[in-house]
Automatic annotation (TrEMBL):
UniProt xrefs under SUPFAM superfamilies: Aldolase (SSF51569)
EC number of this enzyme: 4.1.2.13
A GO term for molecular function: fructose-bisphosphate aldolase activity
UniProt name for this protein: Probable fructose-bisphosphate aldolase class 1
Pathway: Carbohydrate degradation; glycolysis; D-glyceraldehyde 3-phosphate and glycerone phosphate from D-glucose: step 4/4
């Protein structure tokens, strides 16, 4: 394991003013997004759409890395250049989603566990050979009556740690993603309590396997009320709750935190990130957004080649807004 190299890559991924594009939607997720705009999800349509994103002019000003899906890392541009090489050639670090999705913790359980440990080391070697320099594994935590259970937190934390260890041993930077879901009606305070419990469990597991934090990034949820909770917290309250929750859990040597957007609207996620950077933290506060970067792009594109420029303009705009939020220089009226 080359610790210095891992630290260098991690730092580049959270370079000031930049963040990560999560373009690693599973087959099921990209189908749902394409269904909304009346486009069939096929390998070729998926490729055309993702090429639209990657070929957007000057995205390397705002995007440091891209998380790819297994299908995508095997695909190429119209000119036959593998996507991972195209991104690298344009100063963007290619990464790969390595988990294989979620299943019920046990039959009938509302809680989930992530699959994908089988053959993981071999897949790391293959992806590394294809140009990936970092990876991602997502676990999901559900809030509900008596949830999450200790068993759920323990198992998902142990899997995240095992993945991260294998990742570093294969000289790739692990992005560790424990997502406390926004589903339900819980309060901001409840989300803070569960996010704290989750992060404590995750870092205890990471510690137990000897992860080098300087060569890792954390991709957590923001502390926010559930979608069905009508008591909406302000961006300032969300930012304060998130940083309060993280303050005594995050190791000082971690290069940065790349927040997921979850179920937030694009502008909401950007504004919350901006508020956090206004307050400030001891490590980089960045983004690794999927839907919050892509939602306006999909609407503008609608599967039509004549909308390419319109869609790319929508993408560069969202990337720029999030870049400003990284510096605490974003304002809602810029929209």
């Amino acid at each position: 394991m080359d610790v210095n190299k891992l630290n260098e890559i991690a730092k580049k991924l959270v370079a000031p003013g930049k963040g990560i594009l999560a373009a690693d939607e599973s087959d099921g997720t990209i189908k749902k997004r394409f269904d909304k705009i009346g486009v069939e999800s096929t390998p070729e349509n998926n490729r055309i759409y993702r090429q639209l994103l990657f070929k957007t002019s000057a995205i390397n000003k705002y995007i440091s890395g891209v998380i790819l899906f297994d299908e995508t890392i095997r695909q190429s541009t119209d000119e036959g250049v593998p996507f991972s090489k195209y991104l690298s050639d344009h100063g963007i670090i290619p990464g790969i989603k390595v988990d294989k999705g979620i299943k019920e913790l046990y039959s009938g359980s509302p809680e989930k566990v992530t699959e994908g440990m089988d053959g993981l080391s071999e897949r790391f070697a293959e992806y590394k050979n294809m140009g990936a320099e970092f990876a991602k594994w997502r676990s999901v935590i559900t809030i509900g009556e008596g949830l999450p259970t200790d068993d759920c937190l323990k198992l998902n934390s142990e899997l995240l740690a095992s993945y991260a260890k294998a990742c570093q041993e294969n000289n790739m930077v692990p992005i560790v993603e424990p997502e406390v879901l926004m589903d339900g009606g819980h309060s901001l305070a409840k989300c803070e309590e569960v996010t704290y419990r989750t992060l404590k469990a995750v870092f205890a597991s990471l510690e137990s396997v000897g992860i080098d934090y300087s060569g890792m990034l954390l991709k957590p949820n923001m502390v926010i009320q559930a979608k069905e909770n009508m008591t909406k917290a302000s961006s300032k309250e969300i930012a304060e709750a998130t940083l309060r929750c993280f303050s005594d859990v995050i190791p000082e040597t971690l290069p940065g935190i790349v927040f997921l957007s979850g179920g937030q609207a694009p502008e909401e996620a950007t504004n919350n990130l901006n508020e956090m950077n206004n307050i400030g933290f001891f490590t980089e506060l960045s983004f690794s957004f999927g839907r919050a970067l892509q939602e306006p792009v999909l609407k503008a594109w609608a599967g039509k080649s004549e909308n390419l420029k319109l869609a790319q303009d929508a993408f560069i705009r969202r990337a720029k807004m999030n870049s400003l939020a990284r510096e605490g220089k974003y304002a809602v009226d810029m929209e």
